[in-house]
Amino acid sequence: MTPSNALAPQAFLDACASAIGAQHVLTDAHDTAPYLADWRKRYEGAACAVLCPASADEVAAVVKLAHEHRIALVPQGGNTGLAGGATPDTSGRQAVLSLRRLNRVREIDTHNNTITVEAGVILAEVQARAAEAGRLFPLSLAAEGSCTIGGNLSTNAGGTAVLRYGNTRELCLGLEVVTPQGELWDGLRGLRKDNTGYDLRDLFIGAEGTLGIITAAVMKLHPQPAARVTALAGLASAHAALDFLALAQRFAGPLLTGFELMSDFCMQLVGRHFPQLRYPFQQRHAQVVLLELSDNESEAHGRELFERLMEAALEEGLVEDAVVAESLAQSQAFWNIREHIPLAQAQEGLNVKHDIGVPISRIGHFIEETDAEIARTVPGARMVTFGHLGDGNLHYNVQAPEGGDPKRFLAENEPTLNRIVYDSVARHRGTISAEHGLGQLKADENAHYKSDVELALMRAVKTALDPLNLMNPGKVIR
To answer: Which cofactors are reported in the record for this sequence (predicted)?
Structure first.
């Protein structure tokens, strides 16, 4: 699919200046540069302009002009994506549509347990405003200080609390969307039951701006827990971690809100590059689990439940050692270890990243089989395996051998490693993208692993809603 750009962009830019103000139509190279490269610096594009509307009506006006002038639009929130989904191509004919100025919290309804926010509101701001109202907005991820709720919705972001609260899709009750023709759909109903036709909301969530532009959303809130109890547990294998997960779910049920798996090499990397984050055990363990309970009764109740869980896990031989956080600061220190794994990886050098998902029961087998195949193919490759064990999402990354040239490693091995990992994912009935989206990074790979029937259905939806292919072309599906 190639968008048509039949008319000169200057007429489009002049019309946009009239619609949203000339100062919000950025064309100077210095002004546009921050919008043209992705967070990982893997992709760098060009654009005829960066457009910065301040309301849903202004977004609709810009999209309508783009439709008239046949200009493709690339929507962008905080630009923290990991798959190049918010980066324009190199033609210079596309325009970046920044939603950062749509940054209002429109309403908090504590009786309905909802918060209505515009697409450009930073995730941490949503969390803070919910807390001020005595509520919890549970979506939490490493980029929460800069990512936006519109981007979270567009990629159906996951994060660390999916086990209890679900992905962003499950936290959303309603959307406001600008269609590819520039019409504004108000679906901000905040209903938990609405059985009146096709679920348009879910169609736009996870579509990465290829079907329309999300401008606002009604998001679910939850009661603030009375206490959180956090611990690290050392285990002998991923299989033991799965058995421990089952035990924790049996003991804690819905109180179990976090269950993160980290391989021994992840812990080594963090210790190497961030020595202030002290390794909590006297001995090394093949796998470490970070788990958290959120208790609605009291800290004493949560800690008692936690202690009984750990006692049972040690008696059954599932856990080799465990450390329970004794303070909020120590709890945060445990989470800092988990959150610094990607930063430590970046310090170590270039690597091949995979955001995959497999059925929870298959995780141990997937790791064993895929690790072995990678070791045979690229001797010395180091596996950085971590992720959200409770929902089957692994960040299964491959670091260059110790002392090797990371750039050469990437150039020579990335396609081969991707094929090994994605073929293994397919054998285990998994997905090649669990929470980062497809963007331009995995659009071709997705076509390789989806069935013809599924691809035809996706293309039919895209063609029906965006026949001119002006909404983020080249992303998700080609």
So the answer is: FAD
Q: Which of 318, 342, 366 is the last residue of a domain?
A: 342
Give the C-alpha separation, 315 to 319, whole Å.
8
CATH number at residue 127: 3.30.465.10
**SS3 (DSSP) at 421:** helix
| Closest listed residue to residue 135, CA positions, set 110, 112, 106 | 110
**pTM of the full structure:** 0.92
Instruction: Write down the pLDDT at residue 459.
Output: 96
Instruction: Report helix, strand or coil for 433.
Output: strand
Does pLDDT of 2 surpass 80? no
For residue 275, what are its two tokens?
């020595």
Q: Is 273 exposed, middle or buried (0-12, 13-18, 19+ CB in 10 A)?
A: middle
Mean pLDDT of 284-308: 91
Q: What is the pLDDT of residue 297?
A: 86
Q: Residue 6 has what pLDDT?
A: 45
Q: What is the pLDDT of residue 8?
A: 61
Handedness of CA 27, 30, 31, 35 (dihedral sign): positive
Conformational region of residue 435, where left means phi above 0, alpha means psi within -120 to 50, and beta covers everything else: alpha
Average pLDDT over residues 21-39: 96
The tokens 């072309």 sit on which residue? 473
Residues in the chain, overall count: 478
Last residue of a domain, one of 304, 319, 342: 342
Burial per residue of 94-122, b for 16 or more beta-carbon CB atoms within 10 angstroms, e otherwise: bbbbbbbbbbebeebeeebbbbbbbbbbb
pLDDT band of residue 5 (cuts 50, 70, 90) is very low
Domain count, the chain: 3
Residue 1 reports pLDDT greater than 50? no
- Condensed to tens digits (0 to 9), the pLDDT of residues 253-265 reads 999 999 999 999 9
Q: Please name the amino acid found at residue 459.
A: R
Task: Verify that 291 and 209 share a domain, yes or no.
Answer: no
